[in-house]
Each structure stands twice: as structure tokens, then as C-alpha cells.
Amino acid sequence: MNAMNEFATLPLRLKTYMAEDDGWGRVAGRETHRRLVDFVEANPGVLVFRISNENVRRIDISFASESIVEVARRYRGKKGFCFIGLTDDDQRENWAAAAQRAGQPIMSWDERGRLTVLGPQASAGNMDAFEFALGRQVAKAAEYAGARKNMSITNASSKFKQLWEQGFLLRRESAAESGGVEYVYMAIK
Amino acid sequence: MTARMEETIIQLPARWTNASVLEDVLRSCPSAHEIPSAIVRFRIPEGCQLMTDAAVRLLSLLNQLDHATRRVVVEFEEDENGVLGYLGRAGFFESLSSTVEVTPKRPVYSAALQYRGRNPRLVEVERIDRNCRDGNLLTRLTDAIARACSRRSDVSELQGAAWTILAELIDNVFSHSQTPLDGFAALQVYRRGNCLKVAVSDSGLGLLETLRPALRKEGSRLGKLPDIDLLVEVFRRGVSRHGASRGCGLKGCADKAIKFRAELDVRLPQVRVLLVPGTGGYTPNTAFCYSGLPLIWGTHICFTLALD
After folding, report:
1. Which residues, numbered 23 to 42 in chain A, qualify as contacts with chain B under a Cβ-Cβ cut-off of 8 Å?
2. Residues contacting A25, CB < 8 A, separation 6+
3. Which residues of B are less than 8 Å from A60 in CB distance?
4. A95, CA 20 to 30 Å: which among A105, A150, B76, B127?
């Protein structure tokens, strides 16, 4: 697989995977989850799915929990799912409640590229590293350590690893200049 | 209450009867599900005005007793100009098991069938049929709430929140039921009381009956809590049989309902809590929290909202 494919993103129109305009209840959420998994598995080269909620009128918390939040949790660390242009306050609150309960952050980007993290937030100790990664196409621990005073590569690496494990970032292996392997981290967007 | 060898009489009071008043009546009687008598007679006197939370809960209880092969009689003292007429209009008799006897007689035609959907202050008793989910029910209920609360400045947020709350409550009917008996939802606006009541009722296992085995399996300390405390935790912290990562539904409901200062009344087979908005979230109003109540199968939830 080449680098281009690994960075591939794909729009995901949530409504396509719902039986109705309203996402209501666990059973409907599980059905949507099943369809979403089929879609993700049919696109193995895609790293980030950019979700549009266009034509989704309403969703309740159970539906949110069983559908997107569960898919994001299932693929945590391997693939990312983010909302683009989620403007409805009520929906945002429900996605956030489901994400919070699952301990699975979901990135939500507005039209101007501003981020709201739905659900759990990055810890205070990792926030700077998270913001560093958000500002770049890709981020390496060595770059972050180099950009901060008194930050060892080990410490920077540990912060990025935690953010990756917690579902805030994605990562892939890359060949280091030294000849070894290093991780490259990227935001879910 | 009077109990003869073969008959138990449950007498409702001649006044406005909400769920709390109904519970007081039931607590003063032996549990209708557990008594030996074959006949259970409910007497509804002149002047008894059943509010929607009490009506829906009573409807479930009547159908349950009938299902348990009791002979159930509902005696109305007034004709159709009184509560009998109101219940007819609210669709009560359409959902009441046909083998429950009604005296003097069931309304000959259904006012609910004729006028259904025409009164903006009423959403008639709606059956929640697990085999056939009616997606429009939620819209009808939330539209009625929005119309009733149009004077509130937060009506648009309220409408969205009400949809989520009802979606979660009705979805719970599907997940917890496991019964051949239907669940019900109904809404009524009380202009003079400046409130609106939405009641959702099912005759299934009840929240705690499905939750406790899961908590025991997980070895959770919550499993050791008494019923009332566990029920409060379900709404305050979110506890679920689906595991730690799920179960935000009812807590999410409570988080939304509290923003609008709604009261939540939750009745399970033998326990009831009334949750009122406090500073740090919902707190139980202990004056209305009981355990060891007369058995009513299922989960019965009502939320009461101020109109302005």
C-alpha cells in the first residue's frame, strides 16, 4: 500500500446507512452499525471517514451510541471517523453524550476548519501535544520535542502514544532517518 | 379497600388523581396482583379526575390483571359527561383489554377514533407495539409539546430535547419489555395547573430486573444498592445492562430534562422515585419514594414540565 492510499479520506453520508431520517433507538443504531462496518471493510485503504449528517433529522443517544460511536471505538487507532459541518446543537449534544459514555472522542470540524472534540477531552498534560499534531499534516515525537523546551523525545513519544491509544490521533509506521522505525501521528480530519 | 372472599375493591378518590394519588390508593390496598380473590373491582367515583400519568399507569395495571386471568371490573359512577367521557376521548378504552368489564358500559363509539389528533392539548393514549414501530408517534408527541409550550422562550430547544427524551423512553419499552402486553404513551396539557405531562408505560420486566443480573455478572458494587438508590443512579450517573460504555440513554434523558426543570416520576414493579431538579442534578424527593409497593409489572415513567 502506498503512502497516498494510507492517507486516503472518504466522505460518509450517514443518512445512506439509516432506514429513516430519524435515528431512533438501539436496534436501529445496531443496524446502521452493521452497514457502516460493511462500508468500512469495503474500503480498506481509507484511513479517515468524514461523516456528513446531511438529511439526518434527529438522532437519540442510544442510536448515537450504537452506530458511529461504536464504529469509531471498534476501529480506534486504525481508522478515524470525524464529523464535518455538524451544526445542530441537539445532535451535537447527543453524539457527545454517547461519545463521553463510551470514552471514545469524536472529532467534529466546522466549515471553517475549527475543531470541537465530542466526548472525552485530551488530558491537560497531553493537550499541547494534541494541538501540536492538529496544526500539521503529520507529527513526529522528535519534531514535537524539538519545538518545546525541556521535552525529551521519550516524553513526547509517550504523549503521542497515549493520544493515539485514547482515540485522539492516528498513526502509522515510517522509516526513520537512522534506519529504524518511527511513528508518524496525524489528526483525524 | 374492601376484600371479600372472592372480590377485592379498589376505590379511587373523588378528586384530581395524578400518579402520586393513585399510588397512595394502591398502597392502602393489598397488592391486586398477589391477592387470592378472583375479581378485582376498581371504583371510580363522581368527581374523580384521572390525570394522564395515573390513567396510563392504571390502564397497564388493568390489562396486566386481565392477562393474569383475574376478572377485572371498572365501575364508573358518572356517565360520559365525567371521567368516563374524558377517558373515552383520550383513547383509554381502545387500549383496554376487551375482556375487562366496564360499568355502566363502555362508550358506544370511540371519541378518540373520531377526533384523534385534533386537540392540540392532548395526544391520545398511543399503543407502543414492539412488532410495528410507529416513527410518527415521537413527532406527534413532540409537536404537541412545542404547541403547548409556545410561550416558553426555549421552546425550540425544548422540542429537540423532548424528542430525544421520548425516543429513549419509548426505545426502553422495546428493550425491556419481553411481554405480550402493549406499552403506552400519552400526553396531556393542564393549562390551569401550568403543566404538561407525558407518560410512557410498559408491562415488561422493569429496568432493575434487567439491570441487576448484568451488575451481578460484572461484580459491580452498584449491584448491592437498594432499589431506590440504584434507580436514582441509573438517572444520575447512567448505569446499563449493556456494559459500562453504554447506558447513557436514561442519564442523557435526565440531563436534558433537568435543563427544562422537568420532574421525573419513575415507577417500577415495586419501587417508585420522584426525581426533582436540584442544584447538582436530579435528587429524589424522598416524600414520594417508596419501595415494597404493590406489584405493577413494567416501567412507568412520567415527566412533568411547566408550560411557561
Report:
1. 24-27
2. A60, A62, A63, B167, B170, B171, B174
3. 163-164, 167-168, 171, 249, 252
4. B127
Q: What is the pLDDT of residue B28?
A: 93
**Measured distance CA(A130)–CA(A161) in Å, rounded:** 11
DSSP-assigned states of every residue in B187-255: EEEETTTTEEEEEEE--SS-HHHHHHHHHHHHT-GGGGS-HHHHHHHHHHT---TT-TTS--HHHHHHH
Is the Cβ pair B135, A27 closer than 8 Å? no
Interior/surface letters B179-202, b for 16+ CB within 10 angstroms, e for the rest: bebbbbbbbbbbeeeebbbbbbbb
Q: Where are the domains of chain A?
A: 3-118, 124-187
Asked if the C-beta of A20 comes within 8 angstroms of chain B's C-beta atoms, the answer is yes
Q: Which three cell numbers stand for residue B91?
A: 383513547
User: Per the structure block, which three cell numbers stand in for B265?
Assistant: 416520576
Rg of the Cα trace of chain B? 19
Q: What's the pLDDT tens digit per position in B122-160? A: 777 888 877 777 878 888 888 888 888 888 888 888 888
Give the residues across from A116 on adjacent strands: A108
The C-alpha cell at B129 is: 407495539
β partners of residue A173? A183
Q: Provide the grid cell at A90.
A: 441537539
Relative to beta strand A80-84, strand A48-52 is: parallel
What pLDDT digit, counting tens, does each position of A31-45 carry? 999 999 999 999 999
Residue in A109, A182, A87 with CA at minimum distance from that of residue A143: A182
Q: Enter the DSSP assignment of A72.
A: H
Task: Determine how β-strand A48-52 pairs with β-strand B71-76.
Answer: unpaired
Task: Indicate yes or no: CB of A20 within 8 angstroms of CB of B135.
Answer: yes
Kindly report the pTM of this predicted structure: 0.84
How far apart, in whole angstroms, are the C-alpha atoms of residue B79 and residue A53?
Answer: 53
- In Å, what is the CA distance from A112 to each residue of A13, A85, A91, A128, B296? 19, 9, 19, 21, 54
- Those residues with Cβ within 8 angstroms of residue B285's Cβ, 6 or more apart along the chain or in another chain: B274, B275, B276
Q: How would residue A5 be classed by pLDDT, with cut points 50, 70 and 90?
A: very low
Give B300's strand partners. Answer: B201, B267
Chain A residue whose CA is closest to B156: A90
> A186: which strand partners?
A170
We find that the CATH architecture of domain A3-118 is 2-Layer Sandwich (3.30)
Which residues of B are less than 8 Å from A103 in CB distance?
Answer: 245
Residue B63 backbone phi and psi in degrees, to 5: -65, -35
Q: Residue B186: CB partners within 8 Å, gap ≥ 6? A: B52, B55, B56, B90, B91, B123, B124, B125, B126, B198, B199
Q: Which of A19-23, A98-102, B203-207 has the least mean pLDDT?
A: B203-207
Q: Domain A124-187 is in which class?
A: mainly alpha
